[in-house]
Each structure stands twice: as C-alpha cells, then as structure tokens.
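Allow me, if you will, to draw on your knowledge of protein folds for a short while. Thank you for your consideration; the sequence and its tokens are set out here:
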Amino acid sequence: MSRGEAFCVACGAGPPHSSDRLCETCFRERNTISECEETSQAYRCPKCEMNFEGGRWARLESDDLLQRRLDDSLRIHERAQAVGIATHPEEIDERNVRIRIQVDGQIDAFDFDEEHELIVRTSNMICTTCTRKDGNYYEATMQIRSTGRKLNEDELNELRGSLDTLLATMEPDPMFFITKEGPVVGGWDVTMGSKSLTRSWARHMIQRWGGQSKETHTVVGQKDGMDVTRITVVYRRPGYDLGDVLRWRNRLWMVGAWQKDGPILLAHDRQEKTGASWRDLEKAVVMSRYNEQIEVDVLNRDTSAAEFMDPRDFKMQTVRLPYDDDGQQQRLRLGWITDEWVAVPRVRNRDEGDAGRRDDGVTE
C-alpha cells in the first residue's frame, strides 16, 4: 500500500471501503442488513376472535396478523438499499406459525443475503368488549315508544331492524354491542355499549319516521375525578306515517314530509302546504293509513269524477278526482274515509317504500 492511499481503519486493508472507511470483511463482521426476533407474541380473544394489535382490538385476517407481527419483529439497516423481503409461513399448530424470511439488498455497494426464522405465538386474552358483555356493562339505553297508540309487531320489527341498517353504514367499533333487549309494555328497550351509537340511532329513526327523542343522564360513579354517566334516550314515533290522511282542525291533511319540529302537511282538497308541531297534532285523528290505501284502475272519467270497480264487492263506484289529477292518470289511489272511498293525492312515489322515505320525498 503506497503512502496516501486509503486504508481500512480496522485492519489497514485497501479499497474498496464502506462510507465509514471499513473494508468489506470488517464491514460484514460489524453489520447485517437485517435483524429479526426469534419469537413474536400475538393475542386473540377466545370469545369473539378479535386480535389485540397496536394497542387496540380489531378483527384481522390471518395474513394481516402475520404481516403486523413480521413488521414489528424485523428491522432493516438504516442505510440499506434495493431491499427485497420474501416470506413463507408454515402453520405448526392452531396457536403457532413459523415464518421463514429471506432478506437481500445492498449497503454501501456491498451485497447481503440473509435468512431468519420467526415463530408467531398466539395466546388468549379476553377483549374489553367481551369483558363488558359478560359483566352486563352498558352505557346507554334506547326506549322505543309511540305517541298516542301502541306499536304493532311489524312496526317494532321495522324500528329494531333500522339499527342493523345503520350499523352496516358505520365503521366497525368494538363498543357497538347490545347488552340486553326485548319488548316492554308500550314498546321495545335496548341497552347498548355505546352512547354515540344510541344517539345516531335516534337521529336515524327521526329522519325515517319523524317523531321526537329525549335524552336523560344518570351518574353511576367516578373515574379519575370525572363523573361516569349513562344515558337513556326515549324515541317516540308519531301515531301517523308519511302518506297517512289526518283530520286536523276540521280538515283532511296528508303527511308529506318530516322536519325537526313536526311534519309538513299537504291539504287533501287543494294545493296547500303547512307545517305543524308535534304538540299541534296530539289530537289529530288518522282517517286513512297509507299502507291500507288501495290502487284501482280508472274505467271511465270526466272532468271531475271517475268510475272504478270496488275490490270488495266488484260493483261500479264513482269517486271525485283529486286536485292533482292531470286527466291522464290510468290509476287512482283511494282511502276509505268516513264510510266511503276518497281519492287521495299522490304525495310520493308508490315504489318508494319504507326504505326510500326521505325528508325531501314529496311531490307537489
């Protein structure tokens, strides 16, 4: 080695050298492109099979779980470049998986090729949700009721089913569980693990079926100097629905849409719209329910009336045309009001159904 030529600071060998002036032999003695632990611990709840990862419980597929354990156990040299990682998992038993790992790449132009073996062990741990379920834990109670009448079984099933519909549109949360539910006098009660879910469900039902909700709080203890509370939300569904015909203030009105303070009513006999509060309609009488109204074919018509065949006795009947008749309609919607058939204006599309009812689903 001539004077002034670069040399290895460890053994004095000549080039090539790494960036910290070590020859390849000395550099390999002191550095590896990767390090990996021999074992990695995973936790799974034996009741719901959720996994504890990243400080929280979540439901993971097997491949995702193994990848997270690998990412947590394998470390790559900070100056490594062109790194390639190949893995091959082998299931030992239902609780242990062996992962064979091959890592290749370069550090300061020196090529490395290393192999590791990682054992992922899965142990049981009861998750927070299952612990709370087993202890009958809950944060909120939803009480479903009606105003002025008893909810029938179909209505209760419809209201209860709306919770499943809502959950399908929300991000999964371990606290979205039901502790207890069942029928009570006048309605249905559900105790749940999440206050936010309870409030969201109340808003969802109000948007779909109108009505009001009231929330009350109860202090059940203290934690870290803060009050621990539970809430009770009472949702009251109105005794009428979209499309129902009501007698209010000696006139017939149709329920056209929902708003926060009460329904929007459409006059039955002319094009007129008004708003009413829930209190205003406490004494309103339902004269014809939407789901009891019928569709009939128009057999003959003139400018003010139409003939149809009564489906009860198959006799010809005459009915006054609704104010929104355009002279071209081949079918009429009828409601049985005060012992006679009455033509009902169309306030929404017939095929809209329960799932499609919206605040803006009104045509004037």
Observations:
- Residues 324 and 345 are 6 Å apart (CA to CA).
- The chain is about 15% helix and 45% strand.
- The radius of gyration is 35 Å.
- The chain has four domains: 1-30, 35-124, 136-237, 245-356.
